[in-house]
UniProtKB/TrEMBL annotation:
Catalytic machinery residues: 100
Residues spanned by motif Histidine triad motif: 98-102
PROSITE patterns registered for this protein in UniProt: HIT_2
Annotated coiled-coil segments of the chain: none
InterPro entries: Histidine_triad_HIT (IPR001310), HIT-like (IPR011146), HIT-like_sf (IPR036265)
Source organism superkingdom: Bacteria
Record field: transmembrane: none
Pfam families: DcpS_C
All copies of domain HIT, residue ranges: 6-114
GO molecular-function term, one example from the UniProt record: catalytic activity
Name of this protein: Histidine triad (HIT) protein
Length: 114
């Protein structure tokens, strides 16, 4: 049995982290190290999928639910426009192997990172 991911531990209240939005199957937290004025992580409540490739093949509805919540957050906290990033693998800067979307918004012109 592997250890719960840091995101599961936040969801379970074992470590601090405010849930800023959620649906039945997905939750969102502010990134602890924001790379843009809006930087939210949108995460499935279960950690059965490591990355978006597995998620898309295994539960496309859940992926669609993540995208819908991302759009909702971008509408509420930015102008509805957003950058959606999935890192896939350690050499692509993935550090938490519980699939999550980075939702970035309110990015100043010329300040696109990564
Ligand atoms: P990855 O590199 O796996 O795509 O993204 C992991 C993200 O999780 C990083 O952007 C990192 O800042 C964020 N993160 C890591 N630990 C915590 C934490 O304890 N709380 C929050 N809110 N974000 C975290």
């Amino acid at each position: 049995m592997t250890e719960p991911s840091i995101f599961t531990r936040i969801l379970n209240g074992e470590i601090p982290g405010e849930i800023v939005a959620q649906t039945d199957r997905v939750f969102a937290i502010n990134d602890i190290n924001p790379q843009a004025p809006l930087h939210v992580l949108v995460i499935p409540k279960t950690e059965q999928f490591r990355d978006v490739t597995e998620l898309a093949a295994g539960d496309a509805d859940l992926l669609a639910e993540m995208v819908a919540l991302s759009k909702q957050i971008a509408t509420e906290r930015a102008n509805g426009e957003y950058r959606l990033i999935f890192n896939n693998g350690a050499s692509a800067a993935q550090s938490v192997f519980h699939v999550h979307a980075h939702v970035l918004g309110n990015i100043e012109e010329g300040r696109l990172v990564g």
